[in-house]
Design brief:
Layout: H1 16-21, H2 47-72, E1 80-81, E2 86-88, E3 90-106, E4 109-113, E5 118-123, E6 130-131, E7 136-141, H3 143-204, H4 209-267, E8 269-271, E9 276-281, E10 291-292, E11 297-302, E12 307-314, E13 326-331, E14 334-348, E15 357-364, E16 376-393, H5 397-400, E17 405-410, E18 413-418, E19 420-424, E20 428-433, E21 440-442, E22 454-457
Parallel strand pairs: 1-22
Antiparallel strand pairs: 2-21, 3-12, 3-16, 4-11, 5-7, 5-10, 6-9, 7-8, 9-11, 12-15, 13-14, 13-16, 14-15, 16-20, 17-18, 17-21, 18-22, 19-20
């Protein structure tokens, strides 16, 4: 401060005349004293304001981006279940079974055929009738057989008369032979007596040797006649026996033919060969007068009280089953107990090219009840047991969850968890991984919320 009280003039406080004298554009190398700071850097007018504006814009853009992200990011809608079922996972011994399709067949069946050719006379039964063994079921008319029988009986009579005549002739022949032999033996005796007399005379010298020889020749001739006669009788008897045997054989054949014809005519009265139910009757058997050929089928009979279930099992299970093993059989909604009666010895390729199968015969006891032949059945066969298995009851969740997920209850919510399924039976499902005993699992359908990782649980309505 000067003594005369005047203040020194500051650069910013220069007079207007001085400001006018300053050039508008600074020449290179010159610096405005007012724009030079202590650091020696040049500061342009308004730079701080621009920096603040830029920062503000950046912050606004960032806020808009963050808000847009939270606004448009996909969000899982919360779903509340009001109708659901919950089951607790337990540990149990699980029976591993396979289900097989089967067909009911009658153990005892009979095809009743026409024993002879003829025409249909009378049908004694209808489809569905129960018949007993030996019961008359139909009558055939067999006129040809009756004609043959009549002819055979006439032939038998004629043949019998011829045989009787033959026997009578033989009897007369034997009498004639006896008479002739008596005569021959008498002649031989006379010749022998004459020879004896001549020999006495010869010994006395009253007869010659020639006379003695003549009487000896007479004896020899008489003896030859007796011997020839005996031989003739023997031959006649032998021929008689042969002829008699032929007659007897012919008569026996005719009699047998007659008996056979009579039986065939009797058999034309068709009877049932077993006790059972008439399951079908041929159309020809229902038409009176219809021509029927021998052995033509008339009807089918089956004993439906003692059925046999025929089924097939895949060959890989054969070593796990045995004859006599109990099985469960479902017939038209009724469950009955059966047992394996027979296991086939050969595997056969299935029609669809799948795993080869082996035949199974299943015996069932239905008492006096009858089961229609051809009825389809479901056979459940035990092939093993799984001890200490974690199980849940079988339910709709199996299909709606695609057998990959379960929803485990955690307080008032249920969380979707990945699991591994094991053996599935009619009533239970084995869970291999993902579930512990005591876990509470939703076992109703997952169809409406399977895409949600978590669902809220409301009160069951």
């Amino acid at each position: 401060m000067s003594q005369n009280g005047l203040q020194p003039v500051q650069p910013d406080q220069r007079s207007q005349s001085d400001k006018r004298l300053a050039p508008i554009v600074q020449s290179p190398g010159r610096k405005d004293v007012a724009q030079v700071g202590a650091t020696g850097r040049v500061r342009r007018a308004g730079s701080r304001r621009q920096a603040r504006t830029a920062l503000f814009v950046i912050l606004v853009i960032a806020a808009v981006l963050v808000a847009g992200y939270f606004l448009f990011i996909p969000r899982e809608e919360t779903q509340t279940l009001s109708d659901y079922s919950i089951s607790t996972a337990t540990v149990a011994t699980l029976q591993d079974t396979v289900e097989l399709s089967g067909v009911v067949n009658a153990r005892a069946e009979a095809t009743i055929t026409a024993p002879e050719s003829g025409t249909m006379g009378l049908l004694m039964v209808s489809e569905g009738d129960w018949v007993t063994n030996g019961q008359l079921v139909a009558i055939l008319e067999t006129e040809d057989l009756q004609d043959q029988l009549d002819s055979g009986q006439l032939q038998l009579q004629r043949e019998q008369r011829d045989f009787d005549r033959f026997l009578l002739q033989h009897e007369y022949a034997l009498r004639a032979f006896d008479r002739k032999r008596d005569n021959l033996t008498d002649a031989l005796a006379d010749a022998q007596d004459e020879l004896a007399d001549t020999k006495e005379l010869y010994d006395l010298g009253s007869a010659g040797r020639s006379e003695l020889e003549d009487h000896q020749d007479n004896v020899d001739t008489a003896q030859d006649a007796v011997d020839d006669h005996d031989a003739e009788v023997e031959e006649a008897l032998a021929i008689h026996e042969l002829t008699r045997s032929n007659y007897e054989d012919d008569l026996l054949t005719i009699r047998e033919d007659i008996v056979d014809l009579e039986e065939r005519i009797t058999d034309a009265r068709v009877t049932s060969s077993m006790t059972g139910r008439v399951i079908s009757i041929a159309d020809a058997a229902t038409t009176s007068g219809e021509r029927i050929q021998q052995y033509q089928t008339l009807m089918e009979i089956a004993d439906s009280r003692n059925p046999l279930i025929q089924s097939e099992i895949e060959e890989q299970y054969v070593d796990l089953i045995s004859v006599g093993q109990p099985v469960a059989v479902d017939i038209s909604g009724t469950r009955v107990v059966g047992a394996i009666e027979r296991i086939g010895l050969t595997a056969q390729s299935s029609s669809d090219g799948g795993t080869p199968t082996v035949e199974l015969d299943i015996a069932i006891d239905v008492g006096d009840a009858e089961i229609i032949t051809g009825t389809s059945t479901i056979v459940e066969v035990l092939i093993g047991e799984i001890a200490d298995a974690i199980v849940l009851p079988r339910g709709p969740y199996l299909t709606s969850g695609n057998r990959k997920y379960l929803y485990r209850v955690d307080g008032e919510a249920a969380t979707r968890i990945e699991v591994t399924y094991g053996t599935v039976t009619n009533n239970s499902v084995q869970i291999l991984t993902g579930v512990e005993p005591g876990d509470q699992i939703i076992t109703s359908s997952y169809t409406n919320f399977i895409d949600h990782k978590t669902v809220q649980l409301g009160g069951n309505e």
